[in-house]
């Protein structure tokens, strides 16, 4: 009978005298351990203390060499302080974008051993839901908007159709549509959003959502073949288009039936409602604690510094690859600057009512007074079934950019200075060969293969013998160790700028 109870998960209670004997046994064991250590210290003296100190330092040193996600998981175990409430509990991460240097897209070779930086970010932030609609790297380069780029191609072709290319060779731009075609079958931002909005809404809905938009790399790749002025004009249009789509997702996030919805007010206490639903709460509490619509946009890295630029097709005379390289470097900086400016303008809207919210058939969320039950501010005639509705301001728009550029440039600068035998006041050029973020080869990819792009020869798909010696795994994607570092920097930036523990 007792065996059956044990197998069902029950435990027999010990008699009082048996429990007392058990406690006495444990007391004797602890007393023996204390006596043993006291005698060791007494006899060993300073030598024992030095050995103990050395052991502790060795453990800490080894822990520092673990990968980021292992450090993060073990930090929960060895944290001796009272745990701090986690403001990004029940977090969802949704990713839109194109393949970038940190591997936003799925690996072209289908390898499950390699993760994108967004997947690593999800793990570092303990996100509960991860959704990525970024196409696989095998489909080819993804643009922000096929319609915008296609329209630009047609406009340029129409403007030069009557040009005499013999008298003005620079007017020969037929190579643009051949080298940098517009493929409407590859999902751009609009197609990715449409796909996301057809997905079933998660049950239960997440409390927070971090929206990631990783576009621009292949827009710069294409636009660098055009004039610099035309490239800047197109970037202005593309970035404005991106933020118009972000605002569309913002509106969708207000609809409880939409997959974009986040239930910030689930399990909210009356104190939370009184403190955070007040229309004046933005001036009284840290705005990161309010209901936020959070976005993360990574900065673009100069694609001319990647091995894939070496196999870029040469344009016909008088156009040159060097001219395109200068354009790409300039347009990358212009893109980042424009994105920073538009992100600031967008976040300054704060909790403003979004335009077009009526066309989405979403009822306006009206603010009530602080400190009173939300039921009192229901519209007259509502029944008790609606008593759990919380009337609050619109979600606050918040966003940040991840500083991946500095991390990558620092790695490349270190190796360049090491080869030249130089060292600066910041210590660059002096890292030991065993440093965690040292890569002896920052130019040659470990795997010559990569993205599927017409007219470009990637060579074999045989992996090198020492992948960790190469900064680039293939011609366009970084080593997994570098990707993990980029994700760690992004996680730090997101925690600091977009979230705050109470």
UniProtKB/TrEMBL annotation:
The chain crosses the membrane at residues 48-66. The keyword Transmembrane helix applies. Keywords: Membrane, Transmembrane, Transmembrane helix. This is Uncharacterized protein. It comes from [Torrubiella] hemipterigena.
């Amino acid at each position: 009978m007792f065996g059956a109870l044990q197998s069902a998960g029950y435990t027999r209670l010990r008699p009082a005298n048996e429990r007392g004997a058990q406690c006495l046994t444990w007391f004797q064991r602890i007393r023996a351990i204390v006596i043993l250590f006291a005698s060791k210290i007494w006899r060993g003296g300073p030598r024992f203390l030095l050995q103990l100190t050395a052991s502790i330092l060795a453990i800490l040193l080894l822990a520092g060499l673990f990968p980021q996600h292992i450090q993060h998981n073990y930090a929960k175990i060895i944290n001796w302080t009272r745990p701090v409430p986690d403001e990004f509990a029940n977090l969802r991460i949704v990713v839109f974008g194109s393949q970038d240097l940190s591997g936003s897209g799925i690996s072209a070779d289908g390898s499950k051993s390699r993760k994108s930086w967004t997947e690593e970010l999800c793990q570092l932030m303990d996100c509960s839901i991860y959704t990525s609609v970024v196409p696989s790297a095998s489909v080819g380069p993804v643009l922000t908007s096929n319609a915008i780029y296609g329209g630009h191609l047609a406009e340029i072709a129409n403007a030069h159709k009557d040009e005499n290319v013999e008298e003005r060779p620079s007017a020969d731009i037929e190579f643009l549509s051949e080298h940098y075609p517009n493929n409407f079958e590859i999902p751009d931002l609009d197609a990715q959003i449409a796909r996301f909005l057809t997905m079933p809404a998660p049950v239960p809905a997440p409390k927070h959502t971090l929206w990631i938009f990783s576009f621009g790399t292949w827009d710069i790749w294409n636009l660098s073949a055009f004039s610099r002025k035309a490239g800047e004009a197109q970037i202005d249009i593309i970035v404005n288009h991106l933020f118009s789509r972000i605002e569309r997702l913002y509106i969708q996030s207000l609809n409880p039936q939409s997959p974009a919805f986040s239930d910030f007010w689930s399990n909210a206490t009356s104190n939370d409602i009184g403190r955070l639903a007040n229309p004046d709460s933005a001036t009284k509490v840290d705005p990161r604690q309010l209901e936020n619509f959070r976005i993360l946009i990574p900065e673009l890295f100069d694609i001319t510094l990647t091995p894939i630029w070496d196999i870029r097709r040469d344009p016909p005379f008088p156009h040159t690859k060097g001219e395109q390289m200068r354009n790409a470097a300039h347009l990358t900086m212009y893109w980042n600057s424009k994105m920073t400016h538009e992100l600031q303008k967008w976040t300054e809207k704060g909790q403003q009512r979004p335009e077009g919210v009526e066309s989405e058939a979403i009822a306006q969320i009206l603010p009530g007074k602080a400190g009173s039950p939300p039921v009192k501010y229901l519209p007259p005639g509502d029944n008790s079934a609606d008593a759990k509705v919380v009337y609050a301001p619109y979600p606050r728009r918040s966003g940040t950019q991840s500083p991946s550029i500095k991390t990558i440039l620092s790695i490349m600068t270190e190796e360049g200075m090491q080869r030249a035998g130089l060292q600066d006041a910041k210590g660059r050029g002096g890292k030991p060969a065993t440093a965690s973020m040292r890569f002896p080869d920052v130019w040659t990819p470990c795997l010559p293969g990569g993205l599927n792009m017409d007219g470009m020869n990637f060579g074999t798909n045989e992996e090198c013998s020492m992948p960790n010696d190469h900064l680039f795994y293939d011609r366009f994607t970084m080593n997994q160790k570098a990707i993990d570092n980029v994700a760690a920097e992004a996680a730090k930036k997101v925690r600091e700028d977009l979230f705050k523990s109470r």
